[in-house]
Specification:
Length: 293
């Protein structure tokens, strides 16, 4: 949930800056003497809505390294046997998945892992020291396969597209409601008044929170797919089931807010509909019934 909240806040901030910039440049010509030009507003909403999501995607890998303090391993000169095994395992899994070999990193922290990056062939897989110390090699390999499956499934790109779509609706509907309130409630018949701007700001926050439910739902679905992807890459579901069971008995490692939804497990949220990860028992049950090809 933390990652979803930050993603929404980041997108709202970018949308606000873009909206102000486009207004200064005179690009936002969707309010005319005859009322709202819905076609122009839709185009404006698409530009503003997708820009925030795309920017978040493009900076995801460097932001992940910076925010977690992850140290990327040199595949040509690993410092010890553990690093050599990690790099070799991730590269083997990537080859099986048919994607470019990701960068491999380790960061200090409690048990968790994540994958991120804008492109399938230019991604990052990072694992915490806590996870490495608390799991067997087979269980760690299953977690790495889960993260590689995220990359192979194109989850980051799909999440960006979904975020862009919901952002567009947030921008569009907030301005439609703002215009209506300004005209009907505040009785402003010339131009747009303070009521419009206040309403737009409030609606963007409210609609953004509601839109995060959709993003969180997708995030939960992609966890199920990545679990199944791990079973496929490992050739068996048991390693991932054991890894999940072990994670269920551990305190999930805290990831920075911007990357929690990319982790192998999360703490959930205030309500299930805002959780970025399904409950571990549900994931295990789904994996037990998944077909392994």
């Amino acid at each position: 949930m933390k990652r979803i909240i930050l993603f929404v806040i980041t997108n709202l901030a970018v949308m606000l800056v873009l909206s102000a910039t486009l207004r200064i440049l005179g690009v936002d010509r969707y309010i005319t003497a005859n009322g709202l030009n819905l076609n122009a507003l839709l185009i404006f909403s698409l530009v503003v809505g997708f820009t925030g999501a795309i920017i978040s995607l493009l900076i995801s890998k460097p932001m992940a390294k910076w925010s977690t303090g992850a140290q990327v391993l040199d595949p040509n000169s690993p410092r010890n046997q553990r690093e050599a095994w990690l790099v070799d395992t991730v590269h083997q899994l990537a080859d099986r998945a048919g994607i470019g070999r990701p960068e491999v990193a380790i960061y200090e922290g409690a048990p968790n892992a994540f994958a991120t990056g804008a492109f399938k062939n230019d991604s990052l897989v990072a694992v915490s020291t806590g996870l490495l110390e608390s799991m067997s090699e087979e269980e760690v390999a299953a977690v790495l396969a889960h993260e590689v499956a995220h990359i192979a499934n194109g989850d980051m790109i799909t999440l960006t597209l979904i975020q862009g779509v919901v952002n567009t609706f947030v921008v569009f509907l907030a301005r439609v409601v703002g215009y209506f309130i300004d005209r009907v409630v505040f009785k402003n018949e010339r131009g747009i008044g303070p009521g419009y701007y206040v309403t737009v700001l409030v609606c963007e926050i409210i609609f953004g929170i509601l839109a995060s439910i959709i993003v969180a739902w997708f995030s939960r679905q992609r966890e199920y797919r990545a679990d199944a992807g791990s079973a496929h890459l490992m050739g068996a579901r048991e390693p991932m089931i054991r890894a999940l069971a072990r994670l269920g008995g551990l305190e999930p490692g805290e990831l920075p807010r911007s990357f929690e939804a990319s982790g192998i497990t999360g703490k959930g949220g205030i309500a299930a509909m805002f959780a970025s990860h399904p409950p571990i028992p549900a994931r295990i049950a789904a994996l037990q019934h998944a077909k392994v090809i």
